[in-house]
Structure formats: C-alpha cells, structure tokens
Amino acid sequence: MHIEIFSDFTCPFCYIAKKRLQRAIDALQLQNVTIEYKAYELNPDAPVKTTLYNELLASRMSEAKQQEVMESIRALAAEEGLTYNFETMRLGNTRTLHRLTKWAATKGRADQFVERFMHAYFIEGFDMSNEAEVLAHIDTLGLPVDEARNIINSDAFSEELRRDAYDCQQIPIRSVPFFVFDNRVGIKGVEPLEVFTRTLQQLTPPDSTGASCTDTSC
C-alpha cells in the first residue's frame, strides 16, 4: 500500500494525524506500507525570520480564545502521547524543510526526517530559521551535514515542490493534513483512529498483515 501524506511542518494537526495513522498501521501489523511526504505550504510567503506562535494567536483573537484553542489542540496531541509546547513554537517559512524532506527521501530517510523535525518544532522549541539548529538535527539522523548545507543554500528540489503544489490543485487539497491511500481514498484532517483503521483494512489484501496463526497452523 502506498500512502501520500500532504502536510506542513507548522500545522499542529499534521503531526497528530501522522502519529495516529502510524498507530493504526502498527495495530494492524501491516507489511509493505510505503509513505510519501508531499509538501503543502500553509504560508508560502512567510518570512524566513520566525515569530512566536503565541504572538500570532494574540494578534488574531482574545486571550481567552487563545487559551481555548491551545488547550483543544493540546488535548488532541495528548491522545497520541505528544506534549505540545506552544510557548516555544516559532512560525516561519517551511520551504527549506520541505526541500530537505525530498532530499532525505532520496536516501530512504524521509519518515525519520519528518518525525525528527516535527517533534523538534512542536515539542522542543526548534527554530527553523536557524541553519545551525537544522544541521544539528540532520546530524542526529546520521545524514551528511555538508550535503544538507548545500541543499539549504540552493534551490535544489524546488521542482519537486512545484509538482506537489500541482497535485494539490488537481485533487484538490485546500487544507492539511490530507492522506491519499493507493490513489483511491482520501482522508482529511485528524479523524478518529477507527477511520484510519477501517480505511487501511478495506484497502489491505488478506496476506498483507503480520505473522499470525490460523486454526490449523502457525
């Protein structure tokens, strides 16, 4: 099964839904599942210099509403074992991270890359505009830092992002997260675990689950 995940690094629901999908895959012990990350830039014109997430919310809503929004998202995140830290989240331009995801995919490490940087952003106070921080996380993944630095300071993999943007227009996708299963079924947003599980079961051949016993043999 091939699953395309359209997401952005600053979308709090994207990380939650990604973890929920993985929980469904693990529970079903599915084999031969491939995941492809597709770029969706929520704000492609965002400045490179980052700003605190709290400051943006404060400019758009009352303090009471701000707390309500954050607590609602925190509760969803907690269901997936995540402790979101809104006090340290910094919004910025995610284009470089998307280009680096494409680069990591050429090395078979896209899933680890996305997991590391989403965790760093939502929980650890990662500043995506700080090249040294970006490279430090890449180093922890065991990926070549010098190669990553060259990607950052070029427009490499921009064409891949343009193709993703075209795919978003064709489907069409106007919000993320958005999941496409085998080019047949789409799921939008943070759906309950049961929705992901049911979709995976409906699209999975009987022999694609993990090791098991029948009533006649193991």
Automatic annotation (TrEMBL):
GO MF assignments: oxidoreductase activity
DSBA-like thioredoxin domain residues are 3-201
List the PROSITE patterns hit by this protein, alphabetically: GLUTAREDOXIN_1 (PS00195)
Query: What protein name applies here?
Result: DSBA-like thioredoxin domain-containing protein
Give the species: Caryophanon latum
